[in-house]
Specification:
The chain has 126 residues and is mainly β. It is 0% helix and 47% strand. The strands form two sheets. Strands 2, 4, 5, 6, 9, 10 and 11 form a seven-stranded mixed beta sheet that branches. It starts with a strand and ends with a strand.
């Protein structure tokens, strides 16, 4: 069992930065790929970024590539999402998610994740 708690959301002006954190509990964290998703009002939840268990492999949605960076610290059971050059259309609730102990190639789809956090609100003003 893995429990996930996100933090770091808030209100920021366009062009600003935020760093989200996701603290995980559970023995399998260090072996699990971790992802970030987001959901804006009226929209489906969408993939943002994923990192494999070692931190050596990352993938990003095209909309955030070059602006967001996902990282993890397995010693602290924490995954991060550094968000720079934020835009108003980045406004959403951001969710942290954990896969099981084996990498799933459909990392961009919600169905490949077993555990979800409660989400943290990010609001970018213009």
């Amino acid at each position: 069992q893995v429990q996930l708690v996100e933090s770091g959301g808030g209100l920021v002006q366009a062009g600003g930065s935020l760093r989200l954190s996701c603290a995980a509990s559970g023995r399998t964290f260090s072996r699990s790929a971790m992802g970030w998703f987001r959901q804006a009002p009226g929209n489906d939840r969408e993939f943002v970024a994923v990192i494999d268990w070692s931190g050596g492999t990352t993938y990003y949605a095209d909309s955030v590539k070059g602006r967001f960076t996902i990282s993890r610290d397995n010693a602290k059971n924490t995954v991060y999402l550094q968000m720079n050059s934020l835009k108003p259309n980045d406004t959403a609730v951001y969710y942290c998610a954990a896969q099981g102990p084996y990498w799933r190639s459909n990392y961009y789809h919600e169905s490949s994740y077993n555990y979800w956090g409660q989400g943290t609100q990010v609001t970018v003003s213009s």
